[in-house]
Queue: 4 jobs
Job 1
Amino acid sequence: MKKIAVYGKGGIGKSTTVSNISAAMAAMGLTVMQIGCDPKADSTRNLTGGKNIPTVLDTLRENGDADLDDLVVKSTTGVFCVESGGPVPGVGCAGRGIITAFEKLEELDAFEVYKPDVVLYDVLGDVVCGGFAMPIRGGYADEVFMVTSGEMMSLYAAANISHAVKSFGKRGYASLRGLILNAKNIENENELTDKAAAEIETEIIYRLPRHALVQQAEAEGKTVVEAFPDSDMAAHYKSLAKILLGESKV
C-alpha cells in the first residue's frame, strides 16, 4: 500500500489536483482511498457529484459511534472517499478532528477492509501543527508532495511544510518528494517556482497548466478525468499520477 500526503495552501487547487490524481489512479485499475484532512470537508466533492459526504466528526457527534459504511463513500469513479471534518465553528481544534478521524479509521481497520493500493491524504498546508502534521509524523504517509503556484503566500506555505517534513524526516517519518506547480499564469511563475524549489532543496515534479476544463468539470461536480477523459488536461493528471506511483520519472 502506497501512502501519499499532498499539502498546499488553502485555495491553491490542492483538492482539485488530488481528486483528479485519485480518479486517474482508479482509472488505471487501482483501489484508491482519498482522505480529506480539511475542516471545510470539501476534498472529495468532485468525486461525489459535487455533494459533501458525511464527515467522521459529524457522524461521531451525532451518533456517538460509527461503522465504516457510515464514514466511507465509494464514488462513481471507484475511489473510496473519507472526510475527517472539523469541530463546531468557534469551538475546538480542527487539527484534533483529523487525529480523531485517523484513530477511528484505524480502530475500524479501514485499510484492512478496503485494501487500497494507494491512500491519498489531502491536507491543508496553511498550518503544520497538531493534527495537520499527522500524515507526516504519525506514520500514516510515506511520501509528501506540495501543490503550489508562483504566488508568494503559496510558496511561503510550501517552504514551511518542507521544513516540517524535513524535521520529521530525521526521525524516520515521511519524506519530501517535491512540488507540483498548479499554474495561475502569474508573471514569471516558472522562474519564481524554480527559485523556491532550489531554496527548499527539492524539485518540481510536474507543472499543471491552467485550463478551462477544470472549472467546467467542477461545475458538473466531477473531476476532469471523469468528465473529459480524452482531454489533454486529463492526460496531464494521468501523467502526474504515474509519477506519484513511481511508474515514470520526473
Job 2
Amino acid sequence: MKDDISVLVCDDSALMRNLISRIVENTQGLTVCAKAMNGQIALEKIEETKPDVIVLDIEMPVMNGIEFLRERKKRRIDIPVIVLSSIATDGASVTMEALELGASDFLTKPNGSVSADLSTVADRLVELLSSYGFAFAIMHGKDVYEPDFFVRQIKLREAERFVLEKNKDKIEALQEQNVEKIADRIVPAATKIEWNPPEKKKAAVIKPLREGGRIEVVAIGISTGGPNALREVFKMIDPHMKQPILVVQHMPAGFTQEFAQSLNKICPLEVHEAEDEMKIQSGHIYIAPGNFHIYVERRPSGNVVRLSQEPQRNGHRPSADVLFESIAKVYKNNALGVIMTGMGRDGAAQLAEMRTQGAWTLGQDEKSSIVYGMPRVAYELGGVQKQVSLSEMADEISSLARAHL
C-alpha cells in the first residue's frame, strides 16, 4: 500500500485552512497531517508531524510567512514550501521575496467561492503539492504515488466539470425535483483509481533536415519547479554570452514582471519581462508575461518579440509550444532549444520540430527535475539531443552558445 504525501496547512484564516484541507483530503495520495494559524505554530507542528510539503500564507499574526521562511532557513529545514500569494498590488513583490528566501513555488489564493477559478486553483494546488511533496517524500524513504498519478486525477476532475457544465439543464431539472446527489447521477463517482506507472519508452529517432548551425537564439520552456531552477541557471550563466534567451515559465499574470526583476538581481545578463514589438537584443533575457503567448517575428531591421492572447495551448498561456514553433520557423537550425522541469507535455512536440529543423536541443534529466514530465515527453519524441542535470545546465547552455557563435 502506498504512503500518502503529508501536507501541513498554515494560514490564519480558518476558512482558508478548511478550504485547502478539503482539496487535499479529496485527492487520493495526499493527506493533511497538521494545520497551523501562524508560522510559530507551524514550526512546532513540523517537529511533531514531519510533513512532506507545507502550504504557507504570508500575512499572519505572531509570525508571518516571510518570518517563518527566515526561521526555516536559519534552522536548515528543507521541507518544500508552497506560498499562498495574494493578487493584491504588493502580492507579487512579497511572493518573489518568499522565493528568494527559499520557498519552492507559489499559488494565488482561492477566493473560496464555488467557481471555475476555484477549480483551477485546486488543480494547481494538487499539481504543486504532489510534485514537491513527491520529491521530498521519496528522498526520505516513503513509497508515494508518482506525479503522473495526480495528473490523472486532475484530468478526471476536468472531465467531470466538463460533463456537469454540458448537463446544466438536466441538473436544474433534478434540483427542482429535490433529487439528492445529482452529480453522481450525471457523472458516476470513482472513489479510487487504478494505477500502473507509465512504461518508459525508447526515444524516437529524428533525422534533422539540416546540420546544426550557428546558435543565434536560445529558447527555454519550463513549468513546475521553474522559479528556483531558473534562478540557479541564470545565476551561473556566462556573463559574456552573446545570444538572446527567450523564456516561457508558466506563471500567472501580475507576477512575471516581479519575477523578471528578481532574476535580474542575480543574473549577469539583463532580464526583462517581454513586451510586444520589443527588439531582441544580444545577451538579453526575455520572460514571457503571464497570460500572453510569446513568439518571434522576423523584421528587416532585426527580429522582435510578439505577444498574443490566442487560446491556450496544452492548457497554458504562455505556452512553450508556441515559442518553440516560432523559433523553428524563424531560426531553423540556428537555435538552441531547452526544455526543463514541468508537469504535462507543453513544449515537447515543438522542441521535436526544432530538432527536425536542425536546431540544437537540451532536456533536463529525470533526477534533477521536480517533475520529469515535459522533458520526458520531449525525450521520448526524439526532441532532446542531450539530457543535462540542473547543476550543469548553465554550463551546457553557455558552452554550446560559445562553440556555435
Job 3
Amino acid sequence: MPLDFTAIDFETANGSAASACSVGMAKVRDGRVVDTAYWLIRPPLGHDEFLEWNVRIHGIMAVDVADAPLWSEQLSDLLEFTSGDHLVAHNAGFDTGVIAAACAASFQPVPAFDYLCSLQVARKTYHLDSYRLPVAAMAAGFEDFEHHNALADALACAAIIVHAAGRHGASTIAELSELSGSTIKTLSPKLSSAGTRG
C-alpha cells in the first residue's frame, strides 16, 4: 500500500475549539501532494467572536468570514476531500478537537477519522530543540512557509510525514506509526472531546 493520507490544519477565531475560521488540507498519494483545498469558515453562533490574540496570529478577521459558509454548510466538502483517508495534523489533538467541537456546536454528527500526529512523529524522528511546526518542517526540508496560514501549515505537516516515512523506511501510514512508535488514534462520536492548541 502506498503512503496515502490527508494533512489538515485549522485556525480558530478564539479559544473555543468550535470557532474554526479557516481550514487547509493537502491530499497525499504515494508520498506526493496531489491536491489541496483551503477555505474560510464562519464560526457558529456563540463561538464567533474574533479575539485580538487569534487575529494577530493568523490575520483572519470577522469581516473576512462574514460571507463564508458555516461549518455545517462545509462539513460535506471536508468529508468529500478527505474521502476516508487517515488524517495527519501537527498537534492532532487540537485539530481533531476542532472537528468534534465544531460539529457539536453546529448540531452535526461527529465523523469518524483515524489520525496520526506529525508532532509525535517528529519527536520520534528528529533531534531538535523545538518540535513546533516551523522547526520540524525545516528538519524535513520544508522551509519559508507562511506559518498559521492553514494551507501552508497542512503542506508543512505533509512534508514532515513524507520525510519521516523515508527516514523510517515506511511505505504506509500504518508502517510509519509502527516504526516510529507513534500511535494512530481514532476520532469518533463517542470519543470526541475538544482539544487545545499546544
Job 4
Amino acid sequence: MAERCIGVDIGGTKVATAVLDGADLSTPKAVPTVTSSTEELLAQLAGAIDEAAAGDRDAIVGIGCPSVIDFATGTARSSVNIPLKDVPLRSALQERTGLPVVVDNDATVAALAEATDLATGRATVDNLIILTVGTGVGGGIVIGGRIYRGATGAAAELGHLIVAADLSRGAPAGQEDFPQPDSLEAHAAGGALGVLARARGFADGKACVAAAQAGDATAVDALRILGERLGVGIANLINAFDPDEVVVGGGVSAAGDLLLQPAIAVAWPLVLPGIGTATTIRIARHGNQAGVIGAALLARSELGAGSRLPR
C-alpha cells in the first residue's frame, strides 16, 4: 500500500491540504489562513494535518510555506504575510501531530510539482524556474532534476529580484521594509494587480481577472501591465539560468494567456541573444494545486522509503 503523503500549502490568505496516495491526489481542502498569532496558526495547521491523516499513524507530512526556510532544521526564519518568524515549524508540528514532517518554501515545492510526473515520481524536466504570483511573488528552482536550495536552504526568493531600481531616491529601505519598492514582488504580485484593478473600478484583482476573461478591455489592460512587469523578472531568470522552462503559477496565474502573453512579449527582447534558445515560458500545469501537490511530493521524496531525513 502506498504511503499517505499529506501536503499542506500555507498561503497568506488560505491553507490548502490534500493527500497523495500513489498517483491519486484527494480534492484539496482550503480554509482561510489564521494570521492572528503564531500559536493559533500552528494549532490550525496541526488540526488540518490530523484531519487529513484520518488516524493513519504512518502518514508523512510535507509543508510548503511563504517563508525563508532553514531546510536542515525545518525552521521558518522569516515569513511574508503569516506570523512565522524564527519558528521551528518542523519540530513544532511533529510534536503536535506525532507524524514526521518536512518543511520547505511554498514556491520551491511548487517547482517540484511542476518538474515531477505524479505517476512515476520521476523528474520530467532537468532545469525549471517557477514564479508563483499570488499574495506575493515566490520563486523555486530545479537544477538537474533536483531542488536547488542554496548554501543554507533559503533559496530562491525570486520575488525580491530588483527590477526597477531608482537610486535617485537615496539609500534603499531597511531590512524590515520588504518587499522593497523596486522588487518584482512590489510590482507584479496580487497586491499590485489589486491596485491596478481598483484604479479601473474593479473591487479587487480577482474581479479584474474575471472581467478580463469575460472580455472587458479595461481589465485586460490591467493584466497586460502586470504581465509586462512580470516579463522583466522572467527575462532576468532566463539570462541567469538558461532553463528548460520558466513556469508562472500562483493564484494570479488563473488569468492564463491574459497574463502570460504580455510577459512573454516583454521578456524575450530583454534576453541576451543566444540564451534561452531551448526555454519555454508557460503557465503552471497544476494551477493553484501546484503548492499542495509539491508539498506532498516533498514528503514522499524526503520522508518516504529510502529517504534521508529521520522519521
